[in-house]
Design a protein that fits this description.
Layout lengths: L1 H13 L7 E2 L2 E16 L9 E6 L4 E11 L2 E12 L4 E5 L2 E7 L2 E9 L1 H4 L18 E2 L2 E2 L4 E9 L6 E8 L19 E10 L2 E10 L2 H4 L6 E13 L2 E11 L6 E12 L4 E10 L10 E11 L4 E12 L20 E17 L1
Length: 356
């Protein structure tokens, strides 16, 4: 009789409804990325020629993420991520931080998040002095696109035969974030959309972003907008080629420009990879000699699955009236026309741990 009761109890437990929530393990993850960078320019104006040796943080980060299965068709997701300042020893600076719902419909996230425009990327040198934001996303030195946006409502579709759609409504970033918007608050709401395809050796992306910049200028302006097309091809045997074309317009001044980026990488061995990237921003519609050329060359070597050493050289050569900058290199701030270059040696350590 006792055995029969135990069997009934076990059967009852196994038959519990699927709606009971199940929490997954909490994951703590991050990246420690430091580099020594020697940067210089060739500005001929008196007092503007400069060089510096610096230790850079390169978006080192720590994050916490997990999910809770509410039912067979619904899961709650969450993530909190912040910058770690290796150079100063502190924490600070928000990265992707959100709460979301995931199911057969895809996933919806709300919080601070990379825009779909930013996620549709082919950057060979992300988070280094050679980051492609020297040209892509930048209009004459001002990075207006390819950003992480606050107060963002994001939708990620399921992957359907290699295709995925991403769409975000950016609710704005006014000084009174906790208040409902009214007619007196500046408008910097926006939309960011992207479609990506990846199957076999081919990858494609098309992204569009538009947002108001009244909050930045204090005056009513036209919306800033940009469109970006990307294509990649994997030749096999460790060789890949990526191409980006971008057309962007600043709403503040109605200045627009076209730009392209070409990146190539080749795995020389299982642990060593050679990278090369070229880029060009054309003149602004409103002014001549406002373009710039970009070059980056790098070599990386894996010490382990999660640890990598690298060296790279990057430069931006400005036309006489241009002000494009390498990532993190802005000297002299008000000068136009110099060629900026940086020689970097860095180490990257990825880490993660899961806890029940």
């Amino acid at each position: 009789m006792k055995r029969k009761s135990i069997a009934i109890a076990v059967a009852g437990t196994l038959a519990l409804p699927a709606s009971i929530s199940t929490a997954s393990a909490l994951e703590i993850y991050g990246k420690a990325h430091g580099s020594i960078d020697f940067s210089s320019n060739d500005d001929e104006a008196p007092g503007n020629d400069d060089s510096t040796l610096a230790f850079s943080n390169n978006a080192s980060r720590i994050g916490f993420k997990g999910d809770e299965q509410i039912s067979d068709d619904l899961t709650v997701t969450y993530q909190a991520e912040t910058v770690i300042d290796l150079d100063s020893g502190g924490w600070g600076g928000g990265r992707n931080t959100y709460i979301g719902l995931k199911g057969g419909f895809g996933e919806v996230r709300a919080g601070l998040h990379d825009s779909p425009y930013k996620m549709a990327t082919y950057d060979m040198f992300g988070d280094t002095r050679a980051d492609y934001n020297a040209i892509i996303g930048s209009i004459n030195g001002s990075v207006d696109f390819d950003e992480r946006t606050p107060n963002t409502l994001l939708y990620l579709s399921p992957d359907i035969n290699g295709f995925q759609f991403q769409g975000a409504y950016i609710l704005g970033n006014s000084a009174a974030d906790d208040d409902l918007p009214d007619a007196e608050e500046p408008d910097n709401t926006g939309f960011s959309l992207a479609g990506t395809y990846s199957r076999g050796p081919l990858s494609l992306s098309l992204a569009l972003e538009t947002f108001g910049i009244e909050a930045q200028t204090g005056e009513p302006t036209d919306d800033a907008q940009a469109v970006k097309f990307g294509a990649g091809w994997d030749f096999g045997q460790g060789t890949k080629l990526n191409f980006i074309y971008e057309s962007a317009e600043s709403g503040e001044t109605d200045e627009s420009r076209d730009a392209f980026y070409l990146g190539a990488m080749h795995k020389m061995s299982d642990k060593t990879t050679l990278k090369l990237a070229l880029g060009r921003a054309d003149d602004l519609d409103s002014a001549d000699e406002t373009g710039a050329s970009y070059l980056a060359l790098g070599l990386s070597h894996k010490l382990s699955k999660d640890t990598e050493l690298y060296g790279l050289f990057a430069s931006v050569s400005n036309d006489d009236a241009a002000e494009y900058r390498l990532d993190g290199v802005g000297f002299p701030a008000a000068a136009t026309g110099p060629t900026l270059s940086s020689l970097s040696f860095g180490i990257v350590k990825n880490f993660s741990a899961k806890f029940m």
